[in-house]
Amino acid sequence: MSESIQVLAKHGRTFYLASFLLPPDRREDAARLYHFCRLVDDIADEQADAIALAELESELLEQRPPRPLVASMLELRERRGLPIDALLHLIEGVRGDLGQVAVEDDAELLQYCYRVAGTVGLMMSAVLGVKESTALRHAVDLGIAMQLTNISRDVLEDQEMGRRYIPATRGAPKPAVAGLLSMAERYYESAQAGLPYIPLRTRPAIAVAMAVYRQIGRRLIRKGGDPMQGRTVVPMWEKLWVGARALLELPFTSRSPHETLLHSPLKGLPGCAS
Questions:
Q1: Is 164 helix (H, G, I), strand (E, B) or coil?
Q2: Which of 18, 125, 188, 215 could form a disulfide with 208 if both were Cys (CB 3.0 to 4.6 A apart)?
């Protein structure tokens, strides 16, 4: 098992489960992308080091010798055609996590979600072999939906780190989380409509990952939507059940036009509706 697969298994259990549905070469590449994203997150969460983040950015731009993981990422970018602007937006988004965070409104929140997760959707599209540019809008939406789920689940942990991603305009945590999860559902619906753009051999993995991650928000709502009760976790039996249902429903998923309003705060950003 490669180091990247090990990192995926340890830190990204939902994605690790879904990765078994990918062809071996795509699975390794997806794990490598996850490993890199994990490095970026760790610099912000554990080191809180702006210099380390700037050094990483310089390595990506080939302005200094890259460490092995970055060299591996550069090779992946070259081979699969990962967009460099997505990588740089990712680092810019994580740079905003250094120090105190206080999001003011939904537009600021969605721009943050785009940078730290929508960009990952763009890069995964390249890893999966997606060819149609229209598909990228739906890929961005899946990243945003998953990040809104993360934020709703991790309110307590983020608060302890001095971060408030729930917009001030949304008020108290409990109704605010319910509102964010409702917003996430709109982005999940768009992502669902984008599944037919993904090649058949890589489509099932994304359908399962999306369904299982979406279940986190649904579980949180079922227990009252109170994020202060601790982290919401989907047990393995439920992951398997939700994943199996997603696979059964996959043949009946059809394309539908992208809802342009979803990208109103994101105009001009790569992969977004204009």
A1: strand
A2: 18
pTM of the model: 0.96
Q: Is 181 within 8 Å of 217 (Cβ atoms)?
A: yes
DSSP, res 81? T
Cβ atoms of 190 and 143 closer than 8 Å: no
Domain boundaries, the chain: 3-252+260-266
Compute the distance between CA of residue 133 and CA of residue 223 in angstroms, rounded to an integer: 39
End-to-end alpha carbon distance in the chain = 42
* CATH homologous superfamily for the domain 3-252+260-266: Farnesyl Diphosphate Synthase (1.10.600.10)
Q: Which of left, alpha, beta for 224 (phi over 0: left; psi -120 to 50: alpha)?
A: left
pLDDT digit string, tens, across residues 116-166: 999 999 999 999 999 999 999 999 999 999 999 999 999 988 988 899 999
- Report yes or no: 169 and 160 within 8 Å, Cβ to Cβ: no
